[in-house]
Design goal:
Layout (H helix, E strand, L loop, with lengths): L1 E2 L13 E6 L5 H12 L3 E3 H11 L12 E3 L2 E2 L8 H29 L3 E4 L23 E7 L3 H11 L8 H21 L6 E4 L6 H11 L2
Parallel strand pairs: 2-6, 2-7, 3-6, 7-8
Antiparallel strand pairs: 1-3, 4-5
Helix pairs in contact: 2-3, 3-5, 4-5
């Protein structure tokens, strides 16, 4: 679902697409909502694309995409018993499929010049680094991106608990495994994103995250 902005904004963005990646629990959704209001731009969750793709495919057809689920939205009972390193690779594999699909969403908004913010852990660093989206070569500055990373496991635990989404249904051990997986994913992003010349910002301190993001967008013009 595309979330509509508050129309009472001051300045529109200089970009058409803003991609916000990062690990779960880093505050991407809150940031996207705030930036959407700030710039008067709708925002979109990459997870919506993942859920749609899982609904239209099967584990046999897209095993990477279905790594964490046996059917759309239903977690495997044994997945959290896997080593956290394997879970992190699974998260990257899922994100790679989602990012490939997001190419068409980005191409559509570039073609129609309709600004959009897309956020989620399904955004891989290779996506904003692409030279073309479908048959469209983006103009300089039309696509901006950054990654928000939280590496404090206690903070991740608190954020995931506060968010809900079935997190409290897991055992304490499963929760800790999920947090560790997300921390490893954050560490991977801090190494991978700079390889593409992309900014990685620490989530904390949260109170000035939006200001730091806006400064980063200005520097990357």
């Amino acid at each position: 679902m595309v979330n509509q902005p508050d129309t009472k904004h001051v300045h529109g963005p200089e970009w058409t697409i803003l991609l916000i990646g990062g690990n779960s629990g880093a505050g991407k959704t809150t940031l996207a909502q705030s930036l959407g209001r700030r710039f008067g731009v709708p925002w979109f969750q990459a997870d919506d694309v993942r859920l749609a793709l899982q609904h239209l495919t099967t584990p046999d057809h897209q095993p990477s995409l279905h790594f964490f689920v046996s059917s759309p939205g239903i977690a495997k009972s044994d997945v959290w018993a896997l080593p956290t390193e394997r879970l992190c690779r699974g998260l990257i594999e899922v994100g790679s499929v989602v990012s490939t699909a997001l190419e068409m969403v980005i191409a559509h908004h570039l073609a129609t010049a309709k600004p959009l913010i897309i956020e989620g852990d399904g955004i891989m660093p290779f996506l904003p680094a692409r030279q073309r989206f479908a048959d469209i070569e983006p103009e300089a500055g039309s696509i901006r991106s950054l990654f928000i990373v939280e590496l404090d496991e206690d903070a991740l635990m608190a954020n995931l608990r506060g968010r809900g989404r079935g997190y409290d249904d897991k055992t304490r051990e499963e929760q800790q495994t999920q947090v560790r997986m997300n921390c490893l994913f954050g560490e991977w992003l801090t190494q991978e994103a700079p390889r593409y010349g992309l900014d990685v910002l620490p989530a904390q301190p949260w109170q000035d995250l939006q200001a730091r993001v806006e400064r980063s967008l200005q520097w990357s013009r």
